Amino acid sequence: MMPYVDGFVLAVPKDKIDAYKTLATTACALWMEHGALDYVECIGDDVPYGELTSFPRAVMAKEDEVVVFSWIVYRDRETRDAVNKKVMADPRLKMEGMPFDGKRMIYGGFTTLLRASDVIG
Question: pLDDT under 70 in the chain at which residues?
């Protein structure tokens, strides 16, 4: 069975990176506790502003913001749905006062098409 992945792209103000890391650390612990297989947060450091499309354009990143790319891995879609339901109901996840503009966040769920471990063995 191929894993299921939730992916996210968002813009975080540079002066709020520490607050975002604190939030992400809490979120990581919750998702893993409730059944995620992996949780990754990445800060863009080679993310050029493209002429037509790019990560910064997609989230309307401003000069004082950095692009964050993250993903959460689950056993399958059913597990993802169950884990997300538990996390959203968990009182330890506080949604107010987020250190980024959630309206500009891009997210979605993805079925795995290919993994190196399946091809290379």
Answer: 121
Would you state the pLDDT for residue 120? 85
Does any domain span residue 119? no
Please tell me the total count of domains within the chain: 1
The range of the structural domain enclosing residue 36 comes to: 4-112
Residue 16 lies in a domain: yes
Numbers of helices and strands, H then E, in the chain: 4, 4
Kind and range of the H or E run holding 24: helix 17-33
